[in-house]
Design goal:
Blueprint lengths: L2 H28 L8 H55 L4 H88 L2 H45 L1 H4 L4 H9 L3 H9 L8
C-alpha cells in the first residue's frame, strides 16, 4: 500500500473514531507532506499520535476483556453440556429435583443464546483495536518521514553553511594575497624614493645646463686669448724649442744650458 493510500485510510479511520474532531485531523493527515510541513504540523501530528495511542491502549483492554468473557462463557457452556449428561440419571434416581434441572437448563439456554452476542462484541472490539493500530502505525510512519525530511534539510543546510564558510575563507585569503602582491610592486615608500631620485636628477641636469651656459663665455674668451698669443709669438706656434725641452727635462735654467755651446771658437782655428 502506498503512503498516499495508507494516509487516506488513516484519515477515514480517524474520522470514524474521533468524531467531528476527526474531520479536521483527517483532512490534515490526508494532505500531510513532510517535505513542506512545518514544526507546528509535526507537533499536531505527534499530538494526534499520542491521543490515538491512548485510545489504542483502551481498545486493547476492552478487546482483552471481551475475549476473556467469550472464553469464560464458552468454557461454562462446555462444562454445562457435560453436566447435562449426568443430570438425567440424578433426576431418575431422585438425587436432584426437577426445579433444579429446569433452572440449570434455563441458564444453559441463556448462555448459549448470549454467546453469539459476546462473540460479536469481541469481534467489534478486535476490529476497533486493529483500526486504531493502523492509525498509530500510519502516524508513526508519517512522523518518521517528517523527521527524515527534517534531518535531510538540516544536513543540506549544514552543508550549505560549510560551503559558504569555505568560500568566505577563500575570499579572505585571496584578498590577503592580493594585498601582498600589491606591496611587491607598488610600495608607497619605494615610489616616493624613486620620484625623489628623479627630481634630484632633473635638478642636477638643470644645474648642468645653467653651468654650461655660464662657462661658454669663459671658454670663448680663453680661446680668443690663445689666438692672440699665437699671433703675437709666431715661434711658439711651431712647437717646443730644443732649449725649452732641455730646460723642462733637466729642471735647470735655460741660460746655464746655453753657455757651454757659446764658449768654443772653433771657426778661428780653421
Amino acid at each position: 500500500m502506498s503512503n498516499t493510500n495508507g494516509w487516506a485510510l488513516t484519515a477515514r479511520l480517524i474520522t470514524k473514531h474521533f468524531g467531528a474532531l476527526g474531520d479536521r485531523v483527517s483532512e490534515a493527515i490526508a494532505n500531510f507532506d513532510p517535505e513542506t510541513a512545518t514544526e507546528a504540523d509535526r507537533d499536531r501530528l505527534a499530538d494526534t499520535l499520542r491521543a490515538t495511542a491512548q485510545k489504542l491502549a483502551a481498545a486493547r483492554s476492552s478487546f482483552e476483556k471481551e475475549h476473556a468473557d467469550v472464553v469464560k462463557l464458552q468454557e461454562l457452556i462446555a462444562n454445562d453440556e457435560k453436566a447435562a449428561e449426568t443430570l438425567g440419571e440424578r433426576l431418575a434416581s431422585g438425587r436432584i429435583s426437577e426445579a433444579t434441572i429446569n433452572l440449570f437448563c434455563d441458564e444453559l439456554e441463556s448462555n448459549k443464546a448470549r454467546l453469539p452476542q459476546e462473540i460479536q462484541e469481541q469481534a467489534d472490539a478486535e476490529e476497533y483495536m486493529n483500526e486504531l493500530q493502523k492509525i498509530v502505525d500510519a502516524l508513526s510512519h508519517q512522523l518518521a518521514d517528517f523527521d527524515a525530511a527534517a534531518k535531510k534539510a538540516l544536513q543540506a543546510l549544514a552543508q550549505a553553511n560549510a560551503q559558504r564558510d569555505l568560500q568566505q575563507v577563500r575570499a579572505e585569503r585571496q584578498e590577503q594575497l592580493n594585498g601582498l602582491k600589491g606591496l611587491q610592486g607598488n610600495s608607497s615608500a619605494l615610489n616616493a624614493l624613486t620620484r625623489r631620485a628623479q627630481a634630484v636628477s632633473n635638478e642636477a641636469a638643470g644645474m648642468k645646463i645653467v653651468a654650461d651656459i655660464g662657462q661658454r663665455p669663459i671658454d670663448q674668451a680663453a680661446e680668443l686669448d690663445a689666438i692672440r698669443k699665437s699671433v703675437s709669438n709666431p715661434g711658439a706656434a711651431g712647437g717646443e724649442s730644443a732649449l725649452d725641452r732641455l730646460k723642462r727635462l733637466s729642471g735647470k735654467p735655460a741660460a746655464s744650458l746655453a753657455a757651454p755651446h757659446a764658449a768654443p771658437q772653433l771657426g778661428s782655428n780653421a
